[in-house]
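This part of the workshop introduces the protein records we will be handling. To make this concrete, we reproduce a full record directly below.
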Amino acid sequence: MSPIDALAAAISSILIVLTLTLAFTVIEHWPEIEQPLPPSFGVDLFYAGLGAATAGALIDGVMMILLSLLERGEKHRFLQTLQAAGSDEESMEVIAEELDTVLEPIAGEARRRELYADVLEHLRDSQPQPVGMQREDFVEALGAALVAFLAVLPALAPLWLLRDYPLTALRSANIVSFITLFILGFLWGRYTSANPWKIGVLLVLVGALLVAISIPLGG
């Protein structure tokens, strides 16, 4: 997995679990938001969060496989279109349509034409690669699922350790989620050369907004 894929899987999983735990609390309170939480709430919330983490991990794994298939399908389509062109000029236009958006900012037209001619020579007789699922897809999917699941374990820990104090457990889990989101956002910013502090704070604000919406409803 690329670092950005791992970070995306972790962030997505944390937001899924955060949303689920808040929604679960609202449902337990509704419609009488002033009523006390049931004694089993802490344990129920932990298992609900664990289930959400597992579901989120599976979703990330499946999406990783589908995106790999999409990427290979796009390459297959490009090669088929290139080889079906009626002339070298048409083939060059196909290549330009595919690569111009990437190369226009860094190479002049003459240099791009030379590069596209080299690409055409290389791909003219190439055989399309299989589009179907491959072993590497499942390895990457497993990696994405593990990252997504492990990322939420720190936030789930308070739900179990403080299960006899449901509201304390929930707020502690929220705080851990915020800290984790900030760290992941900071790493995202550093990897993408964006301002890491701004990305970290942005993700925390997203999490805080979810909590702010849920509290008036009993969350």
